[in-house]
Amino acid sequence: MSKNLSIVNKDLKEERDKINFNVxxxxxxxxxxxxxxxxxxxIENYFLSDKDLNLELDTSYLSYKDKxxxxxxxxxVVYKKLYKLHNEMGGTHEDFVKIMENLRFTMGAINPEGNxxxxxxxxxxxxxxxxxxxxxxxxxxxRIFNCNILxxxxxxxxxxxxxxxxxxxxxxxxxxxxxxxxxxxxxxxYKWWPGNLGHTVDHAIVMAQLYSQGKCHGIQPFIVxxxxxxxxxxxxxxxxxxxxxxxxxxxVNNGFLGFKNVKVPYxxxxxxxxxxxxxxxxxxxxxxxxxxxxxxxxxxxxxxxxACRIAKATTxxxxxxxVRRQSPINPNEIEPKIIEHITQQxxxxxxxxxxxxxxxxADYLTKLHLSITQEGNTGNLARMPELHxxxxxxxxxxxxxxxxxxxxxxxxxxxxxxxxSAGLDDVYRNSTAAQTYEGENTVMLLQAARFLIKSFNEAxxxxxxxxxxxxxxxxxxxxxxREIFDNSINGILRAIQAAAAxxxxxxxxxxxxxxxxxxxxxxxxxxxxxxxxxxELHGYVCLLQVGIEEIEKIIRNVSPALxxxxxxxxxxxxxxxxxxxxxxxxxxxxxxxxxIEKLEKQMETLFKFFRTxxxxxxxxxxxxxxxxxxxxxxxxxxVYENLINAAxxxxxxxxxxxxxxxxxxxxxxKSNL
Length: 673
Ligand SMILES: CCCCCCCCCCCCCCCCCCCCC/C=C/C(=O)SCCNC(=O)CCNC(=O)[C@H](O)C(C)(C)COP(=O)(O)OP(=O)(O)OC[C@H]1O[C@@H](n2cnc3c(N)ncnc32)[C@H](O)[C@@H]1OP(=O)(O)O
Ligand SMILES: Cc1cc2nc3c(=O)[nH]c(=O)nc-3n(C[C@H](O)[C@H](O)[C@H](O)COP(=O)(O)OP(=O)(O)OC[C@H]3O[C@@H](n4cnc5c(N)ncnc54)[C@H](O)[C@@H]3O)c2cc1C
Prior knowledge:
It is built from 22 helices and 13 strands. Among the domains are: 121-285, Beta Barrel (Butyryl-CoA Dehydrogenase, subunit A, domain 2); 449-625, Up-down Bundle (Butyryl-CoA Dehydrogenase, subunit A, domain 3), CATH 1.20.140. It has helices spanning 10-17, 23-31, 34-48, 64-89, 93-110, 120-131, 134-145, 293-323, 342-377, 384-412, 424-436, 441-460, 471-478, 489-515, 520-526, 528-557, 560-580, 582-588, 593-620, 625-628, 639-648, 660-670; strands spanning 151-154, 170-174, 179-183, 191-192, 203-212, 215-225, 238-242, 255-259, 262-265, 275-276, 282-283, 483-484, 589-590. Strand 10 (275-276) and strand 11 form a beta hairpin. The strands form 4 sheets. Strands 1, 2, 3, 5, 6 and 9 form a 6-stranded mixed β-sheet that branches. Strands 4-8-7 form a 3-stranded antiparallel β-sheet, with no helix packed on it. Strands 10-11 form a two-stranded antiparallel sheet. The chain is of the alpha/beta class. It binds ligand LFHR5U4W and flavin-adenine dinucleotide. Residues 96-97, 100-101, 104, 118, 121-122, 125, 144-145, 153, 155-156, 161-165, 195, 289, 292, 295-296, 298, 301, 384-385, 388, 437-439, 443, 447, 450 line the site of ligand LFHR5U4W.
């Protein structure tokens, strides 16, 4: 997609003239190579240039219902084109995934408040791909791929989202009719939240408690038809609808769903993992948690989403900060660009570094997921808990950081940041939604902490540990002595590791002490705050460790000028991290006041260096103007023209006197009260 062709603001041009590395080289890294960048630009342009999308229409002014209808209309334009492009590209599955992955971000510009088909093209399809036997794949995949049926993933209920073992929807098998009967026995058993469920899809993966031969066999996935394929009317026994207005995701069409004696054929239970014989005999899977697999895949994908939201928000905040002038630093000088205020740099530069490090982590986790899945396909499930713990931990840490950073970016744009046209509100709403969906973040941290405590026990007993938690051995080896701080990047990593291990030890000790008077479960609950802190610190250890490893590799493969920028970014991430976690570090590391002052000074030096590179890095994220969709963050930096133009489009400005004046205001003013 070409940059905006209008004249670039002179302050922004002056900044770009000073960039001392090759921006394109950075972009090539961010998207995985020059070929991928070309592909991304092509796909973006292919979709966004379509006039039928009518992207001129600002949907934020529409009613709830109109927003949904417009989102469906636009999505259909997109998906028709997707299939056309897929055919042109050769029609392989890889081509499809390639388009989908690029489309994910383009979709944000097309449906800023969410995509009413996202669950079909993600959780629904992925569950069928990964949890079915061969016959089921043959039956369902072509229909899903061709969109002859549309589906969602219906797990959460009114009463339970986190504790999925206690979901209440039942699926009772009758071997005589070879059917399941689905029921929602209570109000709290109603499915509640599934995206696209309300009025869009006609099928769902339904997670329900399986009853057979008089016993409950835990939650299992079923594919269930919900609406008639011709009329789209709910089928008999199905009570379905939209859950109403939300904080965000307005056009995702999250829904509710109740069942009353709904019959589902035998072949519709997904049977790759658990199996039910036709006579009703249940055969347990190798690991009961295999049914949670789709959630793991999506959590892995959520890290790159977090990186991209931060990249987008920092692009807006930085470009704006380079053209906005306010408050002279020296009283007799002209007002500087607001970025010259060091506090502004402190708000934005660490965010840019996070986007880069999260992208490194997303690449790492994607590879790890692939390799553990391949092991799983050969029957080796040994590393499933490690992947589960890591994906929970990073999903929580990255989306928490994401929401925090996006909000700081909004604040860094002052009053204008509060305008919808600034483009930060939808990013924030999507960030904060991600803190809850696919596992509430506290709960995710507690899952990761379980793994940490297990590993700590293992380390104490001289057992073996997975690579990512080997630092627990160092802590135990120090035998109560504190880690000595040294001010290098690896020194910072060791300090954060010591803090994470130390907090794990505090949580472990808390549990051990409380166990004397309580059950292990109660003792674990009482240690909850320590456990979440330990898991959070562990997440930062992983990010820094992977950041160091990946960025060292990158530096070896890019030009020296870009290498220096990456080095600067890594140090920014590390120093910002240790200063933010200094309380935890002080508890477990021998670090002096002078060391801390040195770190603070180092941060200032890092800011100074990054001051000239920052614009190159955010330009290198390569968000085109339609994707940025921001009056403050467009490539040309013409923020004031953009702001007034956007304001003029307000529906209230389409007439110079609003009817409420004659209806209410004038009579009120003339009434003399
Ligand atoms: C048409 C063609 C398409 C082609 C497709 C191509 C697609 C390619 C592109 C893909 C693009 C992707 C795009 C992504 C965008 C997606 C946008 C999505 C929009 C939003 C959708 C939102 C959806 C949802 O929210 S779905 C609902 C999610 N719900 C949750 O997350 C619930 C959270 N709760 C849990 O996960 C569990 O209940 C848990 C883990 C908290 C506890 O479970 P439990 O059974 O009660 O477990 P417990 O007894 O406590 O034991 C813990 C024990 O179990 C181990 N464990 C748990 N889970 C796992 C696991 N998954 N794997 C391995 N082990 C696991 C855990 O380790 C503990 O072990 P021990 O400590 O040893 O006991
Ligand atoms: C935008 C959005 C989209 C969604 N899309 C889907 C979808 O497509 N399909 C689907 O099935 N679901 C979907 N969900 C549901 C989502 O997965 C759940 O809301 C989420 O897993 C949290 O569960 P909950 O709502 O039951 O929260 P609760 O578990 O009730 O959480 C409430 C509070 O209790 C705390 N808490 C709960 N359990 C524990 C514990 N064990 N230890 C400590 N604290 C605890 C939590 O930390 C939280 O503070 C969506 C949700 C949202 C917001």
